[in-house]
Amino acid sequence: MNNNFSPLRLFILFLIVILTNSILWLDSLDNYFNNQKHVLISSVVPDWFFTPSQRLHFKTQSADLLNKMGVVPNKSKPLDQAVEYVLKIEKTPFSSTPKVLFAGDSLMQGVAPIAIADLKKIYPNGKFVDLSQQSTGLTVRRYFDWPKKIQEESLRQGFNVVIIFLGANDPWDIYENKKHFVFPSNEWQELYRERVNEVLLFAKEHQIHVIWVGLPNMEVERVRSGALLQNSVFQSETQKYGFDYISTEEILGALDAPFTKYLQDPVKGSILIRANDGIHFTPNGYRLVSNQLIKTLREKF
Amino acid sequence: MTKYYEFFRELLTQLLSQMGLQFFLPAIDILVPVGISFFTFQAITYLFWEYQAKVKVSFLDLLLYLSFWPTLFAGPIIRAKDFHEQLYSQNFGKPIEAPKAIYFIFLGLIQKMVFATWLANHYVDAVFKYPEEFFAVDTLHGVLAYTLQIFFDFSGYTLIVTGFGLLLGFRLPLNFAQPYLSHNLREFWQRWHISLSSFIRDFIYIPLGGNRRGFFWSQVNIFIAMLISGIWHGVGLGFLLWGVIHAVGLVGSNLLSRYVPLRLPVFCGQVLTFLFVAFAWVFFKSSSTANALSLLERLGAPLGDFNLSWLYLWVFTLLFFLFSKYANWFENQLVSWISRLYLWVLVPLLCLVGYLIIELSPEGIPSFIYYQF
Lengths: 301, 373
Fold this sequence. Notes:
The structure holds two protein chains of two kinds. Chain A is α/β, with parallel strands linked by helices. Chain A has helices at 7-24, 26-37, 51-56, 58-69, 76-91, 106-122, 146-157, 186-205, 221-241, 249-252, 283-298, and strands at residues 99-104, 127-130, 161-165, 174-176, 179-181, 209-213, 244-246, 262-265, 269-272. Helix content of chain B is 71%, strand content 0%. At the A-B interface, helix 1, helix 2, helix 6 and strand 9 of A face helix 1, helix 6 and helix 16 of B.
């Protein structure tokens, strides 16, 4: 019988439970802190600390690894689909209905529902799939791998357009293969450009049109300076491939102007377009982006 | 007021410009402190208590009360009198009912991290975001699942902080008492977010006159109180409508029970109350009234093909009601079991439960629905 839950015993009990689970989930914690807090536990903690969590989650990781190495037995299946899809697109470039994938972070989570509701009315037979997920981007691939996700979903669902709106989570250091790429060094920019390229190259090869939505002005200085740099990458790369780049700076605030949450309208006065965090938008702001996006899409279909 | 200002500013500007008048209210950009709703409530109970009981509380104790972190973000609203009585009691500073605290914390984690997120990811989010994509039964499942999700989300949160409260030596007020088993709407509000309902009763309904001026005025007061409750939950027509729906429901059921002698079987009352509450949540959850209506319209769509996820939700719902019915019995059994366990058994067991909770929950840290209010 143990009826004595003294404060010390309770403290030890919770401490052991928290520590044990921290160790058993250290790989996930590392991913999480890398993505959300931009620190890497694995750079300060010895590798053997990770052994229990890696052993426990070996199954899922090994499946990913096998996928990357291309030794998954049914790998031939998506390839077949890809070939079939390319042929289909070649016959009917943009004459058919749009099949659009919406990819991005929380900014896209705000834009996509508004855009899709309007697009459904314009293209009743169109296909519009929103896979946006908050806190994602191109920096921490092991947390969420957008290039891979876009490739897989495009092949699986036969999209002919991908609309991408992300980047606010990205202006942080990249850790890859034990290398550390400091934001905003030249190496960081090159790696970031490579990742953007990876998406665009795949799209070009599979005749999928890309509409890349640039970032508007941001209140948070780091995100603003990141957006300046990222926009130049997004714009130059999309233009290189002949894809569309939508600049949101004109509609939601230029990056070199002082940040403002309001849009001045001669009839309606000040319209609140940005959320309190200085990154996200209000429904008014999302609608402005959505309108621009629909306009660009209508030029294609 | 700050969270409502922008809404009314836009509304007024729009109305005036439609009337041909150009009048712009200034745009104000203010940072709202975290937990403002809840510490305002607690501050009101403090002022009331101080005025009525003529007590004097030290400034430090008052700061402790207003910034008491377990209840700061989303309640439950602990009244100044209850808080300070515990603060000044002889046992203060020692954990109370530790086995119950452990039970609450882990049950809360399961409710929030496993159940609420599972329902959100599999049944709710897509249906509410893209209602036109779904057929009737999926839409119905979305509504049912959200009804369960919001309960697990908020009840889970409350259980966790109540557990923390006990460990810190405070008994927090009960916030949920199996609300979905209620036989009528009045009972629902006595069992759902109890600390808010009783706050609204004591600080809005009764000061308005309560039932002291007869049946008619009592109904008017109920209506006003529910309307204020709706508006308090957030800016926008959805919350207002949700408040109106509950107000109409409460007044309607009062009128029925007064003027119609028909008495329904107990089970029918439970089912009708649950359905009413579930459909009212649609307006609470939807980002706009248009969205809520287009979701409800989908209930007239074709049924859709059966898939296994339907079955999972049915089984889950059945088990939910079963556990709800015997919740007190389960609680007593498990708490007494925990209190009888040796620490060397309890610790590994809790480690395992903790591991499973994380295994079954999605990536990242989910946010709480009630944090926004």
